[in-house]
Amino acid sequence: MSGYDTLLNDETGKLLVYRNWCPDTQWWLQTLVDGLDWRQSRVRVFGREHPIPRLEAWFGAAGVRYRYSGQTLEAKGWPAVVKPLVDAVCEQAGEPFNAVLANWYRTGDDKMGWHADNEPELGDNPVVASLSLGARRDFRLRRNEDRQQTITVALGEGDLLIMGGPLQHHWQHSVPKRAKAEDRINLTFRTIRQEPVGAQAPARPTR
């Protein structure tokens, strides 16, 4: 494992990146492509449904629930093949993550729109870890108070990005299109606080 670079550490949040953190990235990429239950979710925009421009898979510790767009997903437990990777990321980040959202960017046309990881069940100042496998893609941030203030991080094979502090209150992030990019899988690790199933679900941002 390599050391880390501090990209942001001030009153607006903390952003670290560990370069080449994960070995055997091509093996992990193919294992996740073959082994996860990938789906193309749909979002409603101005009254019309649209497929999101990527595939998703969600998994986590048994019993952890994640609610969005009128759905309640309940994890059945960690897939055995990824549990060592989950444990390693938890140790590196110092956070007991209990859920992972995987995004599969199949080509450079797949993308993620501007958003913040600010769902109520993540807590006030969540720690979110993001592991990149496959093709290099830009991870962009823009400041809420001044959208001309931006940070662009090129994330490649095995890079581990960690966001913390009040970053989700002050910054949004995205993964824009990239010409001729090949497969990339991004694993985002979260700690979801559990609430009663009947609690009102937050609206899902358009991404």
Automatic annotation (TrEMBL):
It comes from the Bacteria. Its cofactor is Fe(2+). InterPro entries: AlkB-like, AlkB-like_sf, ALKBH3, Oxoglu/Fe-dep_dioxygenase_dom. Keywords: Dioxygenase, DNA damage, DNA repair, Iron, Magnesium, Metal-binding, Oxidoreductase. GO terms for molecular function: catalytic activity, acting on DNA; demethylase activity; dioxygenase activity; hydrolase activity; metal ion binding; oxidoreductase activity, acting on paired donors, with incorporation or reduction of molecular oxygen. One of its GO terms (biological process) is DNA alkylation repair. Residues 96-193 form the Fe2OG dioxygenase domain. This is Alkylated DNA repair protein.
